Amino acid sequence: MIHIKTQKGKGYSYAEKANDHYHGVSKFNVETGEQLKSKSNLPAYTKVFANTLVKHAKKDSKIVGITAAMPGGTGMDIFGKEFPNRMYDVGIAEQHAVTFAAGLATEGYKPYAAIYSTFLQRAYDQVVHDVAIQSLPVRFAIDRAGLVGADGSTHAGSFDITYLSTLPNFVVMAPSDEAELVKMINTSVDINDRPSAIRYPRGTGVGVDLPSIDEKIEIGKGRVVQQGTQVCILNLGTRLEECKLAVEELKAKGVSTTLIDARFAKPLDEELILKSAKEHELMITIEEGSIGGFGSHVKNLLAERGVFDKGLKFRSMTLPDAFIEQNDPKKMYDKAGLNSSQISKKISDLLFQKETIRVVKN
Asked: What is the secondary structure of 65-106 as a DSSP string?
């Protein structure tokens, strides 16, 4: 056995003294150690999650918080201050965190395992065998979903929609803003017969009013944000604001667009999706995740129901088949092709494309 003693940030005093910072940094002043971050009055998704969970835990003693060496990054530090005997930081041991949560669930507790999307990948075997197969009501709070800016490609939550939605017995949710996040947490408290996951990004919300902890949503039901006639955009997650801008850009071109906040990657709102497919010329899915996720499940539903046989145009916009290096999140999404102008261009190109006539010479 070799025991190697390490010191965090050795050689740079500001990093040495920071217990939970300087793992991934934006631009910073080397002289003072100050990170040059843009200031915002908007609520961070992480804090919205933590504060909402605290409110529920005050009413429900069965709620327990679990994390794996990331209390500050997941908001479990906030939960732990309120409930020091109900928050467990198991260290850098995501596999143990998931199995521990499964064990608590068998005893009637309501465990919330707050783990970054990329770190939950380490515990996929336990998610499958210890949670999903037994259909245990572990609640996964998946922070750092989508592209994450300063944390770079190592922390980009690109794959969780795909790797969770393929599992039986799972509920997979993605809020479009901080109000929807609160509603999904409220809903998850009462999911006692199967595992559930809520994925949300690093960063801030959009500034909407937060609902009470009593406001819930029906499992597997999306919502129509705007009704149109030609194009249907099915959005999952926080690209909704970019989709709204794309709708306005399309409106200027004379295109009537329906915008749907899907809310659920699993179970799909089959009724709403099939109805929308029937009523529109073009359907396009948007998600902050890799191929194989939400769009793939929607496509499979439409194929199995014979919708494509009747001529529906369909496309999925996902994260590209590449690791995107660290940058400002907007620039990262530009590179991924998931900002408003890219969404509207994709739709315009499909609607207004000219048929190519191929002449074959004998």
From this structure: EEESS-HHHHTHHHHHHH-TTSEEE--S-HHHHHHHHHHHHH
